[in-house]
Amino acid sequence: MWTIVLGLLAGGILGGALRAANLVHTTGGAIFPAVVATLVTTVLLFRRVGQRINPLVEEAQRHIAGGRREMALASLRAGIPLKAWHPLLEGQLRAQIGALLYDSGDLDGALVELRRASKRPWEARAFLACAYFRKRQEPEMKRAFADVVKVGAKDGLAWTLYAWCMNARGQKDQAVEILKRGLSKNPADQRLKNNLELANEGKKLKVAPYGDRWSRFQLDGSLPGVPKAARGFAQRPGFRQRPQRKS
Question: Which pTM was predicted?
Answer without folding.
Answer: 0.75
